[in-house]
Amino acid sequence: MRERLRRNRFLVVGRAGLDLYADPPGTEIENANGFLAALGGSAANIAVAIAQQGGTSALLSAVSDDAVGRYTTTALANYGVVTTHIKIVGGETRNSLAVVETRVENCQSVIYRNGAADFEVSEADASAVDYSEFAAVIATGTGLAREPSRGATLKALMLARAAGLVTIIDIDYRPYSWASKSEARQVCSQAAELCDIVVGNDDEFAVLSDDGNSLQHAEAMAGRTDRIIVHKMGDKGCITFANGTRIDTPIFRVKALKPTGAGDGFMGGFIAALAAGSTVQDAVRRGAATAAIVVTRVGCAPAMPSAADVHSFMQTHSN
Q1: How many C-beta atoms surround the C-beta of residue 39 within 10 A?
Q2: Confidence of residue 210 (pLDDT cuts 50, 70, 90)
Q3: Strand 86-89 and strand 197-201: pairing?
Q4: Phi and psi (nearest 5°) for 8?
Q5: Tell me: the pLDDT tens digits for 186-206?
Q6: What is the DSSP string of 164-231?
Q7: Which of 83, 216, 258, 311 is most deeply buried (CB count within 10 A of its CB)?
Q8: 68-122 confidence digits (pLDDT tens)
Q9: Buried b / exposed e across 117-133, counting CB within 10 Å, b at 16+?
Q10: Residue 20 and residue 36 in contact, taking contact as beta carbons nearer than 8 Å
């Protein structure tokens, strides 16, 4: 796994969309003077995070055939993300939209996902990728919530495994996207079984578990095969199971502006560190540092730090 990751080229599967942040920072949406536009979407954010830290990332997704879809692909390209695997979809589909606040307490986020364009990526789109180009495929749970992107995500993971790639998933469970929790448990568990690295928080591992015991389920997943399982616990840090060991990693304490984007930043920093040859313990710490930086900045994709930013931060902050 580690040797393959050193190729440092990643295909991320999932959502890219438009975020509108209430301005000025600290303002409630209903009292905003205006809104700051930025690239968003969990998969897009992860792809940007990897690109910002020196990796090559490509996005497998779909965008609407309109100005917002063009904004999304242009923004991705400006961040250095490869966009050749993004399909343009016409008709009534639209890119997802998040209207969000930059504040820590009672942060409101209004999500528009009806007829989302990224749900239209298909198994044929996944099959058209040359997986030999990549070190790994990173899937996000948002793409599993609906067909045809559900089939496309599972297909990409299966083709990646067949080609010898490392397979990675951020469970990224969003209840509003799913018909039921039982459906989410079945589908996300199927995807997780295809993956060498599984990352999720308390709620997400609880969804995978029949009894709701998230930490016990995460540890059991690590025990079945040679894989890395990262169980995130918010301000309590995270617990990683790898190679038969448990690694407890606290957070870096910062003065946060907002809670959003931390998980995507963590994944980007963690994977970038593994690709650079770091130990699992050091990679988790770099992921935590990336997440800490992201919550101190406005936006999600725009908040993703460079490798130099992360290095400097880790020299001056301790967890």
Answers
A1: 26
A2: confident
A3: unpaired
A4: 60, 35
A5: 999 999 999 999 999 999 999
A6: T-EEEEE----GGGSS-HHHHHHHHHHHHHT-SEEEEEHHHHHHHSSS--HHHHHHHHHHHSS-EEEE
A7: 258
A8: 999 999 999 999 999 999 999 999 999 999 999 999 999 999 999 999 999 999 9
A9: bbbbbbbebbeebebee
A10: yes
* CATH, domain range 2-316: 3.40.1190.20
DSSP 305: P
Q: Give every CB contact of residue 163 below 8 A, 6+ residues apart in sequence.
A: 131, 132
What tokens appear for 277 in the block? 């040859």
**Structure confidence at residue 2 as a pLDDT band (50, 70, 90):** confident
Amino acid at 100: V
Beta strands 56-64 and 86-89, pairing class: parallel
Name residue, tokens 């295909």.
11
Q: Which element (helix H / strand E) includes 275? A: helix 262-275
What size, in residues, is the chain? 319
pTM: 0.97
